[in-house]
Amino acid sequence: MRKFIVLALFLGLPSGILVQHAQAQSCPAGYGDMLDWMTLDTAATQHLTGPQNLPLYSKLPSGGLFWWIKGKSGYPWDIQYYDANNIYQWITDYDPHSYTDPHYFKSFDSKTGMPWTPICVPQGSAGQKLSSITVPSAQTGYHEYGPNCNQVKTQFYLGNTVNEVWNYGNLNIDNTNPPGNLGTNPDLQLSYRYSCDSSYSNCKYQEVYDFMQKYGEVRWTYSILQNGSYVQQSQTVFNKVVSGGTPTPDFPCPM
Length: 255
Hints:
Elements (H helix, E strand, L loop, with lengths): L30 E3 H4 L8 E4 L7 E6 L2 E5 L7 E6 L3 E8 L11 E4 L5 E5 L1 E3 L6 E7 L5 E5 L10 E2 L2 E12 L13 E12 L8 E8 L3 E11 L2 E9 L2 E4 L12
């Protein structure tokens, strides 16, 4: 998550640009491939930006990892791990230090501690929940890291967590200043709620990631539960595809 630890493409591309599919995962008929939904196929030549003028580069899934890189120098980043079944949140930037020094980051103590979503989810219909994973607090331990990759001694926990994937239907977020250029496309939402009670309800924090078919992550929304409703605190939008391929990730610490 960004508070804590926190694109598959048919663009009408000019001839001569090779579209590289995000990965070779094969899902059964009637299922969608989340590795493909969450990363940008044209990452070798393009990336996303938006009204906040922040870049988002994708490093495509390979060797059990994929990256969302938020700076042209190769950092900061969100790094996700995946195995044969699930995608896991693992490492994220540590504001504000991570934007000037890649030795600063936050990491779950286990790379499989925070399962976000199955790789293959049912396609479903608009408004339908496609998957749900509950994660007990004991599994959510993480540490902060700083100069020379040193680990801060204090261990933190997110608390009980609920991760759900929903079929949002069609989404258009081009109506910004300056306007985007993605158009209207199918969208899946990953709802990531943490600091929940013992029944995995009344979660204090919620982050929602929108993954638009053809483009990947196009919006991130952070909210806090207040009087029974989630009240938005911040939002980042990536609604414009531009030229410029993914830089080499700069992660100087041992993984």
